[in-house]
Fold this protein.
Amino acid sequence: MNKKLRKAVIAGNWKMNKTPAEAKELIEGIKPLVKDADCGVVVCVPYIDLAVALEATKGTNIGVGAENCHWEKSGAFTGEISADMLSAIGVQYVIIGHSERRTYFGETDITVNKRVRAALDNGLTVILCVGEYLEQREQGITAELVAMQTKIALGGVSEDELKKIILAYEPVWAIGTGKTAPSAQENEVCAVIRSTVKELYNAAAADAMTVQYGGSMNAKNANELLDQPDVDGGLIGGASLKPADFAEIVKAANR
């Protein structure tokens, strides 16, 4: 982390977990543990939990995000939620391009870009995910792939709008597996993302960009990962469902 240049952000991605009652209980458990955090703290919850999460976090330092949004304002898109619907109820963040959306639900680099555009147009801060599969890492094309994903996703995004983007590096092979590569290798990919932003915009924009790591960061490895100069936080999966573990990661980001 380099807190002199950019803010660290720890965001929980709850995925398809927790009923509204369970969501309230989880947030109530998290609140006292992170109340003094100087990094950004966010919980990204299923749509059904958004209203409860917004109420439970009112007056706290915890932001609330959704896990996806559609690019159209309205229409015949059964099961989808638009960015302006999220904005209308007070949601502040949205995850876009998560590997599970790409893998299981047909998300492409082009639709990621369209969702980013819709989210920005509705005042949401985007947690924008990029990352490679194991086969792509073994082929040695991680840097090229992640750079391409970043460039396509940021198409049409102005330098001023970039302030509402958080990039999250998600090595797909590490998500939910507990596996991580050596932290220095993960830092190299985060540095590739930052250099891509520099290429697209300028050095100042790249220096200010928060780049999270999203591959099985947990209470045990958070310190090591967050010690890397280009890792500015985490997009946390399983550990975000355990208040004590999530708080340990936030603590690591506060050092």
In short: The chain has a mean pLDDT of 94. The beta strands are 9-13, 40-44, 62-66, 93-96, 125-130, 165-169, 211-213, 233-236.
